[in-house]
Amino acid sequence: MTGLRERKKVRTRRALIEAALRLFTEKGYEETTLAEIAAAADVSTRTFFSYFGSKEDVIFHDGGIRLEAILGMVGRRRPGESIGDLLLRVSEASLNWTTEEDLALDLSLERVDLIMSVPALQAKALHLLFDSQLRLAKALHEAYQDEIDLLEAATIVGSLVGAAKLTVMAAMDRGDSLEEVWKAARTAATSTISRLT
Amino acid sequence: MTGLRERKKVRTRRALIEAALRLFTEKGYEETTLAEIAAAADVSTRTFFSYFGSKEDVIFHDGGIRLEAILGMVGRRRPGESIGDLLLRVSEASLNWTTEEDLALDLSLERVDLIMSVPALQAKALHLLFDSQLRLAKALHEAYQDEIDLLEAATIVGSLVGAAKLTVMAAMDRGDSLEEVWKAARTAATSTISRLT
DNA sequence: TTATGATTTGCATCCGTTGCAAAATTGCAT
DNA sequence: ATGCAATTTTGCAACGGATGCAAATCATAA
Question: Which residue windows are coiled coil (chains A, B) (predicted)?
Answer without folding.
Answer: none
